[in-house]
């Protein structure tokens, strides 16, 4: 929906998720003001009075999710959420505009459920990250947000001001895998999400996750998941 005027104070019996596709403003919850900007998500728990004050014309996509799992999400503004979550909100909006039917409802349930699972995963990782050594925490944050860039261990270590060998040791000691393996897994996880919830061509998905060579991407994908990207997409779409 378009947002160009303050939204009155209201509440819901479900958890409300709002993706800000365009614009900026403030979320007001319990008289506290939380600024948001384009690309961010806000969470308003059930029965919590809240309102929205846009600072400029914007576009929002709102989703209501019920269930105990959704009530565990932390409220207010979520920063640094993956682009795939925003793309899934857009896909939800596209599905809503389609013809009614059981298949449409199943798709809506699948998409909203996936958003919930991803936000829960982010929340768990934030909790786990709080106890990590600073170099590991910083390295993982870089890999999580810049996986689409050309990154190698030396450059990563230089940004954190430690040696590559020390970073590799700390990373594996705390997370059970090397930075390179973590980066590959992150790229393929995002690729799986894009294959499932978007219609982007495989070549474009490869580029978006930092693997410019689509042939290498397809070989790596099949080696790790046992099927090609196209086979993976077809399997997910038919399930």
Automatic annotation (TrEMBL):
UniProt keyword list: DNA-binding, Transcription, Transcription regulation
Organism domain of life: Bacteria
GO MF term set: DNA-binding transcription factor activity; sequence-specific DNA binding
Alphabetized InterPro entries for the sequence: AraC-bd (IPR003313), Homeodomain-like_sf (IPR009057), HTH_AraC (IPR018060), HTH_AraC-typ_CS (IPR018062), RmlC-like_jellyroll (IPR014710), RmlC_Cupin_sf (IPR011051), Tscrpt_reg_AraC-type_HTH (IPR020449)
Matches recorded under Pfam families: AraC_binding, HTH_18
Domain HTH araC/xylS-type, residue spans: 137-235
Protein name: Helix-turn-helix domain-containing protein
